[in-house]
């Protein structure tokens, strides 16, 4: 089983501001997401909730079959995880649209 994976987040309720690319990164992306939004996050991209805008924000994380979430901060001792991220393949099917979709157009 692989423990470092790409991730798909589905917003199941509420509205919130999230950060992608670590808050100390000047090139980070901050987005307001709400119920019904779906986000594909490549492995190795830092992400976190910055602000629950209405209370009750919830999201669901999904991973390719055989994979699970894992934390990787790029710290000493995590070299194998970082190397593993570089060797990950991309999605064979779009997690929302199936055989065609924007994830496959990368």
From TrEMBL:
CDD domains: cupin_YjlB-like (cd02219). Gene3D superfamilies: Jelly Rolls. SUPFAM superfamilies: RmlC-like cupins. This is Cupin type-1 domain-containing protein. PANTHER family: BLR7373 PROTEIN (PTHR36448), CUPIN TYPE-2 DOMAIN-CONTAINING PROTEIN (PTHR36448:SF3). Residues 5-47 form the Cupin type-1 domain. InterPro entries: Cupin_1, RmlC-like_jellyroll, RmlC_Cupin_sf, YjiB-like.
């Amino acid at each position: 089983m692989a423990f470092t994976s790409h991730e798909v987040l589905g917003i199941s309720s509420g509205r919130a501001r999230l950060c992608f690319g670590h808050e100390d990164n000047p090139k980070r992306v901050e987005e307001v997401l709400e119920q019904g939004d779906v986000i594909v996050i490549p492995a190795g991209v830092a992400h976190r909730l910055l602000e629950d805008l209405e209370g009750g924000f919830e999201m669901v994380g999904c991973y390719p079959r055989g994979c699970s979430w894992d934390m990787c901060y790029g710290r000493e001792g995590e070299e194998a995880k970082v190397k593993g991220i570089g060797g990950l393949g991309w999605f064979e099917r779009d997690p929302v649209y199936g055989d065609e979709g924007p994830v496959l157009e990368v």
